[in-house]
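Extended Data, panel c. Modelled sequence:
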Amino acid sequence: MTKKPNSSNSRKASAQPHYHQTARELQAFGTVTSVMPLQLIEPVRLEMTEQLNQLLADTMTLRDLYKKSHWQVSGATFYQLHLLFDKHYEEQSEIVDAIAERIQLLGGISIAMAADVAELTRIPRPPKGREEVPVQLSRLLDAHEIIITHCRELAERATKLEDAGTNDLVVSDVLRPSELQSWFLSEHLVDAPLVEAEPLRESA
């Protein structure tokens, strides 16, 4: 009996690229793979990936808000804020990658495209135009507050579900850097004299 050649093995090698390929999705968004050696049951991984995708969407939005501020900042504090915003942007980019990798590690699918981020994020969209520095700083601080609040809730929930890895990620890689960046931003909103200190006043 003649065996039918295996289609995958019967193709002839060629240097010609295969363009315009399509195929079904390997895994649908909002699902987790069924076999993972993490000792975390599927409902836990489903809940954690959903929560982490929300955190990812907000973090990607904050990251891009920093880049917008970096490009559009102006005024007397231009130089230091131009550098600070870009530094925070780079740090947020690392956080984005860490969150996305955790989602994939849990067997889920991380969001990636701008349209999906815009649909999911809870951070308000800024105008396209340039804004004053205090408004830029306030927008960034408000975004940090949304993320920090979610981090505290998610860390507590992960602990209850015995997902120590997600708890560690959220606290160490997202919450603490966000707190630190918030501090750096808020110090720029202190109404302190720039050139001449206020004179001391004698107490009555």
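Helices lie at 42-72, 78-105, 114-120, 133-160, 164-186. This feature is highlighted in the accompanying rendering.
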